[in-house]
Amino acid sequence: MTAEAGAGGLVVLAEPNDEFRTFVAGHLRRSGFVVHEVETGEDALEFARRERPAATVLEVTLPDVSGHEVCRLLRDEFGEGVAIVLISRYRTESQDRVAGLLAGADDYLSKPFVPDELIARVLNLVRRQREFGSAAAQADLA
Predict the structure, then answer these.
(1) Torsion of CA 53, 75, 78, 80, to 10 degrees
(2) What tens digit of pLDDT does each residue of 21-65 get?
(3) What does residue 51 show for φ and ψ, rounded to 5 degrees?
(4) In angstroms, what CA-CA distances link 89 with 20, 32, 44, 63, 80?
(5) 10 Å Cβ neighbour count for 87?
(6) For the chain, what is the mean pLDDT?
(7) pTM
(8) Domains of the chain
(9) What is the DSSP string of the chain?
(10) In whole angstroms, what separates CA 51 from the centre of its chain?
């Protein structure tokens, strides 16, 4: 599936907790996103390299590769071309959020969060990404 398959775009959701992942994915889908659900950082990276999502939502404490590391790798490979939101139930202190943002995340939410807040943040990031990509493409044509 490509990003164009849903009005919001393609989102990779990496969350090891099945119940929470299903909950968040349902909200993203109802908001127009196509969601690919994974449990591990490696699976998120593999899918992102194959399909190039509009956004990724990554739990910080994934069972294999940390969300911070996945974030860094996605930034290295795609630059600003992928919106990245980190989420965490356990890594919620100020220094944790700062570390995530310095790793390249566009945003960082602590669990529990209101699903509408996540949706609004992802929608805004994807919109900005599309506007930037469109402006960059127009500049290349000039």
Answers:
(1) 80
(2) 999 999 999 999 999 999 999 999 999 999 999 999 999 999 999
(3) -115, -15
(4) 11, 26, 19, 14, 26
(5) 26
(6) 89
(7) 0.87
(8) 3-141 (3.40.50.2300)
(9) --GGGSSSEEEEEE-S-HHHHHHHHHHHHHTTEEEEEESSHHHHHHHHHHH--SEEEEESS-SSS-HHHHHHHHHHHHGGGSEEEEEESS--SHHHHHHHHHTT-SEEEESS--HHHHHHHHHHHHHHHHHHHHHHHHHHH-
(10) 13
Q: Give residue 140's pLDDT.
A: 56
Question: CA 67 → CA 2, 15, 105, distances in Å?
Answer: 23, 10, 10
Lowest mean pLDDT among 14-23, 36-45, 86-95: 86-95
Backbone angles phi, psi at 33, to 5 degrees: -90, 150
